[in-house]
Amino acid sequence: VVKRKSFEKNQCPIARSLDLVGDWWTLLIIRDAFGGVRRFGDFQKHLGIAKNILSTRLKALVEHGILDVHFEVEGGHGEYRLTDKGQALLPVLVTLAQWGEEHTVWPSESSQLVDAKNLQPLRRIELVAQDGRVLTPTDIATKKPMRAHDDNESAA
Amino acid sequence: VVKRKSFEKNQCPIARSLDLVGDWWTLLIIRDAFGGVRRFGDFQKHLGIAKNILSTRLKALVEHGILDVHFEVEGGHGEYRLTDKGQALLPVLVTLAQWGEEHTVWPSESSQLVDAKNLQPLRRIELVAQDGRVLTPTDIATKKPMRAHDDNESAA
Asked: Is the ipTM of this complex over 0.90?
């Protein structure tokens, strides 16, 4: 794994999230875990990923409490499952899916995230204020901690 | 840049999105562009990123139509701005921010995405069906293209 800058203590929650899930393999592993993939060999086959890369990613996901691993039999196959913290990443995957559906070229056979009950697409995710207003990018700001050399907020 | 597998023609829209924005620098560049950063030197200073890495990422973002670049004066500084396609990534950043706020340790000074009107946090993003039901992970499925060796859908 390429060593990189850590964002673990970054003041921005986006950066802190990316510190844990900010590479494509990690998010694809999480996607597959949502899809019911449990075993090392199945992740490997499904993703076409090198063993060492998969191994590092799974280990980090377990360390960060996003997956946990169960062994049915001692020495047997481990089964990786999303924790509650991991399941809470589903909205990230759904926003990526909705953007991909709208802004990338659909291959002839594209999968889609749907409501399991009727196989209809989910409602498009909107950004909503506490009072229910739908927000556009210019309606959103970043509230920064007060520091001498910074403005307290800026347009997002 | 490390050469990697391309997901451009992947049947999964999440993979296709990650093909374009699936590394931490790219999403942080987009975050800063939402925050009003426009110039190469400002991205560099703000992110603490090496010039060659920033340069490659900006070029790719322009090529993929997520940023465009304007030159006020010929030969002068370029100004990078989010296109509509780029602005459509805001929900991805918001879901990452909300997950980070809830599931990573807040440093003493954490920034927050807020409603610019009253500096209140946004409503928590929910996954909602066409008929308005709030969906949990087990309510969501992946509709796959029909293929001989695949089930047509599976629980997400």
From this structure: no
